[in-house]
């Protein structure tokens, strides 16, 4: 399993999500005004296929 740390942030127009792969975990930021979390995770799996079926989502504490 790879931990995916999901954050909601305001990003520039036409940049609905961005990610950084650190190997042991992936940091994913998405702009909820441009893309919902499910779509961001789906796109992330397209970009990083090793995550398919092997990711664990975590979110920051409110």
Q: How many domain modules?
A: 1
Report Rg. Answer: 11 Å
Structural class: alpha/beta
Strand order, largest beta sheet: 2-3-1-4
Q: Which stretches are low in confidence, meaning pLDDT under 50 for 5 or more residues running?
A: none
Biggest beta-sheet profile: 4 strands, mixed
Apparent shape: globular
The beta-strand count equals 4
Overall pLDDT: 97
Compute the number of helices.
1
What do these coordinates show?
It is a single chain. A four-stranded mixed sheet has the order 2-3-1-4, with helices on one face. The relative contact order is 0.32. The chain is built from one helix and four strands; from the N terminus they run E-E-E-H-E. The protein has 62 residues and is an alpha/beta fold. The chain has one domain (2-58). The mean pLDDT is 97.
Draw up the topology in text.
Elements: E1 2-8, E2 17-21, E3 25-30, H1 37-47, E4 55-58
Give the structure's gist in a few sentences.
The chain has 62 residues and is an alpha/beta fold. Helix content is 18%, strand content 35%.
């Amino acid at each position: 399993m790879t931990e995916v740390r999901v954050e909601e942030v305001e990003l520039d127009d036409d940049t609905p999500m961005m990610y950084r792969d650190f190997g042991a975990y992936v940091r994913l930021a998405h702009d909820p005004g441009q893309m919902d979390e499910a779509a961001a995770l789906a796109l992330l799996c397209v970009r990083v296929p090793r995550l398919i079926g092997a990711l664990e989502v975590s979110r920051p504490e409110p």
